Every structure is written in C-alpha cells, then in structure tokens.
Amino acid sequence: MVDRIQSIRGMHDILPEAGAAWSWLETTIRRVVEGYGYQQIRLPIVEKTELFARSIGEVTDIVEKEMYTFGDRNGDSLTLRPEGTAGCVRSGIEHGFLHNQMVRLWYTGPMFRHERPQKGRYRQFHQMGAEAFGMEGPDVDAELILMTSRLWRVLGLQGVRLELNSLGSAEARAAYRDELQDFLRSRRDELDEDSRRRLESNPLRVLDSKDPGTREVLREAPQLLEALDDASREHFEGLCELLSSAGIEYVINPRLVRGLDYYSRTVFEWVTDELGAQGTVCAGGRYDALVSQLGGRETPACGFAMGIERLLTLLEAQSLLPTLAGPRVYVLSQGAAARREALHIAEAVREARPELGVQVHCGEGGLKAQMKRADRSGAEVALILGEQEVAEGMVTVRALRGEAQQTMVAQTALLAELLRHCPIDQEGH
Ligand code: HAM
C-alpha cells in the first residue's frame, strides 16, 4: 500500500459542495464594497519577512510565533502573508499611489498563520479587507463601519455587535503603557503566566487576557480611554456621534486592544456569541503611523478585515446560506447521430441562456441508466434525443421534479418550452 498524502493541518480544501456559498458570499461582499467606491487590489501572497516584522510588530504573537517564514533560494527571508494591510501599504509606497490622495482599496484572498487549529481558527484562512488612505477625520472610520453594517444587513446576519475603543496617539499610548506596566508589576503575583510574560514585552496585550484572575486585577487597572490625548478624544467622540446619528449601535470596550501593533486611535471589532471563542468576524482600526513607519510620507489610514470562514459558519448557523446551484438541464442521447445533435443543442441553450446551466451526459449507457443519472444530478429538466427525435428535428423534454411530464417539441420551440419548466428570475436563478 502506498501512503496517501494528506492536506496540511489547519489548511482546508474548499470542496465543490461549499463552492456555491463561497461565490455567493464573495459576490455579495464585492457588490457592497464597490457601492462605496472601493477598488480591488491584488497583491502577492509572499512578501519579505521584514515587512511584517516592521508593521505588525516584533513582539506580537503573529510575528513571534505564527509566521510561515522560509529562505528563498537566494537567501532572502520570505513570509506567507499573515494579513493584508502591510502588503497594501508596501504597494502604495512602492507605486506612489498614497501620497496626497484619497485612496479606497479592498482585497480578498488566503492568509497564513501558524496558530493552534480549532473551530474558526485555521492556518490557511481567507480574509476580505478594506483600507482607506489619506483621510484623517472620523468620517472615514464611520464609513468603514457603515459598510460592514450594511453587509450584515444585506446578508441577513443577526446578532453581530460592534465593539469600539480608541488607543490614542502613539505618545499618549506610550505614557499609558508605562502607567499600566507599573500597575501590573505591583500586582504581578496575581497574574496568569502568559500575562506575566506579556507584562514585560507588550503590556497592552494583557488587557485582553481571558484568565479570570487577571481579569479581576484589570478591573482596578488604569483605563486607556482616560489617558487619551485631546485630539484623539475629539476624534473618538466625533466617530461615536457619527455612528449614533447613522443609527449604528455600539459598545465601548475599554479593554479592546488588537493583536497587531500598528493601530492608533480607533479600533473596532464585530463580535458574535454564536461562534464560541473565535467570535470576532471582522476587525480593524486606524493606523496613521504605519505608512511613514514603512518609509512612505505620513498618510492617515484606516481599515478592517473579515474572516470569510467565520462568516460562512455564522451564516450557516443562521440558515442563511443559498443551496448549491447546479445545472438545471441534463441532456441524454442514444446513438451516434443523436450524440452529435445533443452537443449542438446544449451549446445553443448555453448561448441563449447561459444562466440555466446545461450538463451533457458523457460516455456510454442506455437511456434508462442515463435517466437515473439525470435524476440524481439535481437538474429540473431532461432533454432526450433518440433516433426518432433526430430524424424529425425534435427534442423530448421531460420534467424531473414534481409531476412526470414529457412532451416532444420542435427544436425551434425548445427554448420557450425549457423556460416554462425553468423560469429565470432577475438574479439569474
Ligand atoms: P485580524 O484581527 O488579525 O486583523 O484579523 C481580521 C479577521 O480575520 C479576524 O477578525 C478573523 O475574523 C479573521 N481571522 C484572523 N485569524 C484567523 C484564523 N487563524 N482563522 C480564521 N480566521 C481568522 C487583521 O488581519 C488586520 N489586517 C485588519 C485590518 C485591516 N486592520 C486595518 N486594516
């Protein structure tokens, strides 16, 4: 017996039965974001390791232990992208499309993180993200949030709540960081092990610890929102006001910090309670310092990314996924002449009504066996071509669902007969 090769842990095949849901979700997302004037950008999956180390941050979980990093044949250190923001900024600086402009971008594709796989957390996963450059006011933060909120509405999703926080300016955050660190050091013995480690390397991350003991200590910790600089406070209040006037509900979560270091001011997450521990379906915020940090001119920026797998799981839990849309017409034939004719007829139907989907029976088999396949295919109608039909320029049309109905029609009348069985709505279904 030869050993069978399996897929890599945490990296999943998206099988044909899931294909319809994926395309439907991707199309829905595209329509919504393009409705806000965002343009698609497609970037490489592999970048120089340094890009992620400098943007996401050296002392983050992602950079410290989750990246797929390898040496290129020429000795460069490369990494499979763990997220999309760094690549957008790199590309914008490289092609000069960020400076002094207002740019709205969106992207989708696979991302890679060597995390411990579990439900909702994978090593290869897919994100759809949006990034807006060159706008410093809270109106663009609000726009990004409105866009996601509209998407939930279009998808029919219920129960995703918006959590908001502000991390302030880099200076205010550094001052708060020291204050928090002093406080946590004074309570070191009460913290869990992970938090004790983070206390020294990245104390802000202690704020989102799930450990009950640590959370108890945090209740008395100084608050980030109280340490905000004036300009950041004004920005945050402006955003809250815009959201309220747009009718968007939100919860201010002063403990909301992010696992990536590039944020300043606004951070937000859309969270559900239906997915267990991996309840964040979409997350983002402002990163005004990142462009200059990566060598570009100072450019304000804001964005988010959503996890496609998590969204699909949530859509499924709420019974919102469309069913598989297979071909609606199945063509059978018997005899060499009929087989040739079957190909012509199938092509003619595809030409006239591509949205119907036509599958032609391939290979041998009597009509009875072919009919079984037609039944199993999920199609609504079978077109049957035998010697008689070919000789007379006719086609037999047989309904496969509901009441058994079979009629023979002239080839010229076929399309009308087909549409009687398979009406097409405005969406093309
Ligand atoms: P993130 O919070 O690391 O942010 O990821 C965004 C979303 O991607 C998460 O909320 C989650 O839905 C999904 N996600 C992350 N890791 C996994 C995983 N291992 N398995 C499944 N889904 C996952 C970012 O990536 C930032 N680039 C977002 C951003 C864009 N900020 C500004 N612009």
What can you see in these coordinates?
This protein has 429 residues and is of the alpha+beta class. The chain has two domains: 16-168 and 228-317, BirA Bifunctional Protein, domain 2 (2-Layer Sandwich), CATH 3.30.930; 329-421, Rossmann fold (3-Layer(aba) Sandwich), CATH 3.40.50. 39% of the residues lie in helices and 20% in strands. The chain has an eight-stranded mixed sheet with strand order 1-5-6-11-10-9-7-8. The chain has a five-stranded mixed sheet with strand order 13-12-14-15-16, sandwiched between helices. Strand 12 (329-333), helix 12 (336-352) and strand 13 form a beta-alpha-beta unit. Helix 1 packs across helix 5 (138-155) and helix 5 runs parallel beside helix 9. It is elongated. It starts with 15 loop residues before the first helix and ends in an 8-residue tail after the last helix. The mean pLDDT is 94. Bound molecules: histidyl-adenosine monophosphate. The site of histidyl-adenosine monophosphate has 27 residues, from strand 6, strand 10, strand 11 and helix 11.
Which descriptor suits the 3D outline? elongated
CATH structural class of the largest domain? Alpha Beta
Structural class: alpha+beta
CATH topology of the largest domain: BirA Bifunctional Protein, domain 2
Strand content: 15-25%
Largest sheet: 8 strands, mixed
How are strands sequenced across the largest beta sheet? 1-5-6-11-10-9-7-8
Please count the beta strands (DSSP E, at least 2 residues each).
Answer: 16
What low-confidence regions span 5 or more consecutive residues with pLDDT below 50? none
Bound chemical compounds: histidyl-adenosine monophosphate
Percent helix among the residues? 25-40%
